[in-house]
Amino acid sequence: AERQLLTDFSVGINxxxxxxxxxxxxxxxxxxGQGDYYTSADYVPxxxxxxxxxxxxxxxxxxxxxxxxxxxxxxxxxxTGAVITTFTTNVVPVYQLAPxxxxxxxxxxxxxxxxxxxxxxxxxxxxxxxxxxxxxxANVSYSDYKENCGGNAFANPTPAVNGDGRGSSAASSAGPVxxxxxxxxxxxxxxxxxxxxxxxxxxxLNLTGVYVFPWDINLGAxxxxxxxxxxxxxxxxxxxxxGTINVLLNPVGDKRFDNVYELDLRLAKDFHLFHRVxxxxxGDLFNVPNKRTTLQRETLILLNESxxxxxxxxxxxxxxRVWRLGARxxx
Length: 331
Fold this sequence. Notes:
The protein has 331 residues and is an all-beta fold. The chain has one domain. The chain has strands at 2-6, 9-21, 24-29, 43-45, 68-69, 72-76, 83-88, 92-93, 95-97, 106-111, 115-131, 134-149, 203-213, 217-226, 234-237, 245-248, 260-274, 277-286, 294-297, 300-303, 306-307, 314-317, 322-330. The strands form 7 sheets. Strands 1-2-11-12-13-14-17-18-23 form a 9-stranded antiparallel β-sheet, with no helix packed on it. β11 (115-131) and β12 (134-149) form a beta hairpin.
């Protein structure tokens, strides 16, 4: 809905609700063509043994007890060995395929039973059209994107991240992973420089304005802000029957990187050279306050309850302040 309050000013509000059912996924059959899909009844606790390890600190268990993922992580300087930071994660019970059940092999593309997603979004806008030498536009949005799992929606009860290479529809989970209590946050890539981008910001804000000075001089500003993306901490657990699994240690969205703020400015001057020929000289300044917010860290921080050397390593920062000068000819 949009309402014009003045001749050059309007406000709007939009609400969006979506519910998704019968989404396609990959399930695993025990025998080809028989529809005997894996369920949580096919999984048993992964017990502490000499081969599997017994953890340390908060995840330490005795021989014969169920193994717990998570524990204490320590980040050290790779050159000096000095401790940079130490923190303790949640601990999560780990499950493995029962000895009498065949290892997942046969994949079937089908709809996911007992599974649904819900999205609720609210957006508020305000627009001041160009008049009296200035214009302004603002919008702010808030969203909530969650999933719901019934009893047959997953097999391996061990929590993992969808799309992390050992999460969604992987043999180690015999299909899709359990629903998270947090937000749905698609992973941008399974590997590479942007493998730790889990795309989800519950709120976002944008403010844009332009003022036209005499002699066709334009001053513009653009301000963007959003909630930091989730940082789902994980422990890579090996030794389980069925394969390696990256165990999720906290609900997606429970921990996040810092919020991101960026202010850009633009100054431009229009020239009219000849008939139908014009030129615009401009100067842009991006990230005016030179914020260097952390955008990504390696969130696979543990390997069998021990600190990974690559864990929590900084992988992406907000781009620094940048100047740009430009000229544009119009014919």
